[in-house]
What we know:
globular; 3-stranded mixed β-sheet; 5-stranded mixed β-sheet; 10 helices; Spore Coat Polysaccharide Biosynthesis Protein SpsA, Chain A; alpha/beta
Amino acid sequence: MSDxxxxxxxVINEAEYIGKLLAYLIxxxxxxxxxxxxxxxxxxxxxxxxxxxxxxxVVLLNSPKGxxxxxxxxxxxxxxxILYFLHAxxxxxxxxxxxxxxxxxxxxxxxxxxxxxxxxxxxxKIAPWFTQFNAQIFxxxxxSLFISKQQFEDLKGFDERYIIFEDIEFIQxxxxxxxxxxxxxxxTTSERKFKQFGTWNLxxxxxxxxxxxxxxxxxxxxxxxxxxxxxx
Length: 232
């Protein structure tokens, strides 16, 4: 194993964050630990692609819209032996690359704990505390996800039937076959969705989506619920 990370970031219209994130990743990791950064675009119409083009050694791939599809395209194309899936508005801790490599050497998959960029609601201050616990109910894509490429391939990647909930479903399958570790350090993510839909409202609908999944709802049913209540 080369012990190098491929960082995979799916984007659609992320001009507000993608430049800041790429600059941050380059500054806060060791060059020798990073095989590449892959941006997988699902059809941006803003300045995202122009911003990405200003960064050298960043790979830009095109994909049909859909986060699971975008993540799979990036994962299968990766040159690194370690895959790190990251949202465009989520910033990992300094030295994240070394922390991830150490866990992969211990045969762990995993994620980080979570905190919000500007937690102006008490729920946004309290909820992240629970992300320290290694239980699937407290997991989410905003916490980022690391896994070896071989494990990713063994699991056949993300289930593209899921338009939403693809990250949770993948983590559920990971935990059935591999050890999962929550690193005791934080990624910092935007609370923009909570501002858009309301904090109580968003947490309620997230809970309902989880509950529907536990009760056996299909990917199509989960997306219909999401589209009715939370789609932009």
